[in-house]
Amino acid sequence: MNSQLGPTLEHRVSRATRYIEQQLDSSGTASWEDTREHLATTLRIPHTLTIEPALRAVIDLESQGALAHDLDTGQYRRALATDPQATPIGDVAEAILSLGWPTAAQGGHRTIHQTFVALGGQYRHADVYAAMHERLKGRELELYAMKCWRSRGELAIAATRLADPTTTVAQARADERKLERALVAAYIDTLGYRPRTEHPIGRDTGTDLRADIYDPKRRLIIEAKATVDGLFPAIGQVHRYRYLENLAHGANVVDRVAVLLPEAPSESDLECAAQTYLELDVIWQDGATFVHRQLR
């Protein structure tokens, strides 16, 4: 213990562990509130400094099989042979997601303990904690207001999964389309009119291609990409669309093409794209608005 800075975290964890074990031996149960109060009183520290040591003590004891959460009382007790055993966090994470998540009308969030209860005590509280922090946080779920968990939303989940190298090709493509459709819808909402979407390209040329947006008012074809890295792959794609569309009509019905991105590309990428010497625009989302830059 450092007399000037107060008890170290490890010392606080040790004291919490010892107190919980003493309570389990003497009365058969222990509680979260009593443990924190004991630390605050005996160590003379603020209650805010009792959360982490109490949590670590409980998780360590349960992980070692020395403690279990009683589903009915919410208190801690000695583990029984009939209690849930350690389960891989991937399996626990799948079970958590299968619960669904509260809608905004239902409050929109759930704590780890509420999730443990909703699972009916099928899994150890420590494993539910690990699954939510190590597998689901920053992916399907996000933590806010200290202990509340909510869904990150369909689009945020899709973006995270798309950046994950372990995502299957089929899933990545589905996520790309989901993000691109949302980007197109957000962009069109800022125009004040509705251009054509999913526009068939060069139908008389035997292709089965579709442009995300065809705007006859501006004689412009726009291709959306789920990530900023899609800029360069899209350049050849949109110019092919313009060529085929004009060929099919026997006239220039498309003057320019554009790539629609969810965020601004780097200036060096814009400079590089401008060197293609093609009539190319780049449009990107900037908060609730979009920036439209004509490169050439």
In terms of topology, how is this protein built?
Elements: H1 9-26, E1 29-30, H2 32-43, H3 51-63, E2 68-69, E3 76-77, H4 89-98, H5 112-118, H6 125-136, E4 141-144, E5 148-151, H7 154-162, H8 169-188, E6 196-201, E7 209-215, E8 220-224, H9 231-249, E9 256-261, H10 267-274, E10 280-286, E11 289-294
Helix pairs in contact: 1-2, 1-3, 4-6, 5-6, 7-8
Explain the overall architecture.
This protein is α+β, with helices and mostly antiparallel strands and 296 residues long. It folds into three domains: 9-77, Arc Repressor Mutant, subunit A (Orthogonal Bundle); 89-152, Orthogonal Bundle (Arc Repressor Mutant, subunit A); 169-294, no CATH class. Helices cover 43% and strands 17% of the residues. It has a six-stranded mixed β-sheet, with helices on both faces. Strands 1-3-2 form a three-stranded antiparallel β-sheet. Strands 4-5 form a two-stranded antiparallel ribbon. β8, α9 and β9 form a beta-alpha-beta unit. The longest helix has 20 residues, at 169-188.
Low-confidence stretches: none
Mean pLDDT: 91
What is the SS-derived class?
alpha+beta
Helix content: 40-55%
Strand percentage: 15-25%
Give the H and E element order. HEHHEEHHHEEHHEEEHEHEE
Number of strands: 11
What's the assembly state of these chains? Answer: single chain
Number of helices: 10
Distance between the termini: 67 Å
Q: Count structural domains.
A: 3
Radius of gyration over alpha carbons?
Answer: 28 Å
* Major sheet details: 6 strands, mixed
- The general outline is elongated
Physical arrangement of strands within the biggest beta sheet? 6-7-8-9-10-11
